[in-house]
Known about the structure:
The chain has helices at 18-28, 35-43, 86-100, 115-123; strands at 10-12, 47-53, 57-66, 69-77, 106-111, 127-132, 142-147. By secondary structure, it is of the alpha+beta class. It has a domain at 10-104: Gcn5-related N-acetyltransferase (GNAT) (Aminopeptidase). Strands 1-2-3-4-5-7-6 form a 7-stranded mixed sheet, with helices on both faces. Helix 1 crosses helix 2 (35-43). The longest helix has 15 residues, at 86-100.
Amino acid sequence: MRATSPPVPLTTLDPASATEAWALDRAASPDAWSLPVWREELGRGDRRYLGVHTDRLIGLAGWADLAGEAHLMSVVVADRERRRGLGARLVAGVLADAAAHGASAVTLEVRRSNTAARALYRRAGFVDAGVRPRYYADGEDAVVLWRR
């Protein structure tokens, strides 16, 4: 296990961050969103994204406001920055931000095979609530989690 990341403040991402968000997402995930999707996401009034920057964007997390409940849309950490507590900081930041904006609960979907992410979410208080069969483009199931 690597050392914990030094404290770096979470910042709110906006449409000007779209290219950085897209590059980070593309490098980290087979399910990366396109640049136009990132531009749209970061410009929507019902979405909020938080980021961590050093000399570049190294992590982000975002949520959607769904009628008083939050849907955790994405958590992405640069490969070389993983296992340093950054994902947990981002999830905690999203939970606090969603609560500050009136969300009473938070939900998300995660790949069944992503055991590291599932463990992170459980440590943050999420519990399994179901499965969405063949949710991802490659046919993998998603596990649905809730934190109330």
